[in-house]
Amino acid sequence: MGRGLGESWLVAAVALAAAVTACGGDDTAGSETDFVENIQASIEAVEAERGPGQDFFEVTATPQLTNVFVAIDDATSAVPYVYLDGELEPPAPALSGVSGFTFVADQIEFDESAILSQIAEEVPDSTIESLSVEGGQDGTVRYVASVRSAAGGYLDVTVSPDGAVMAVDPV
What we know:
The protein is 22% helix and 33% strand. It has three helices and ten strands.
């Protein structure tokens, strides 16, 4: 995830996620993919805080938390937020020198109950670890699931809004 935001962004995102995960988060409640609901909720929380019409680089939901990267300064910097247990945490310091495609909330249109269903059906022994919404080329939005196989390998699975598998890339 975060393809194109740069290595410094990735290091900061991993550190932020690790720090927040260590602080808690309920990963046992609900079904294995209930975390998908947090994508829209986290965007709504960010826009309640910052105002409507924000540009986003990426929103990544996991069973533990949701990371939201808001594009600022003409999409050359990002403000990272964590949405945890239904609450938006204070933002982390802005990350400068990032780049990538962006999207706005109105571009997100996926079926929460279906977006991961085909992966779950076709690879039943895998674990879907996250779903990311990313800005794509030419103003598009990409939906990418991170999937861990029973054998321990990882795949990035790009899906359509209705869950159809469009691409599978080993990580």
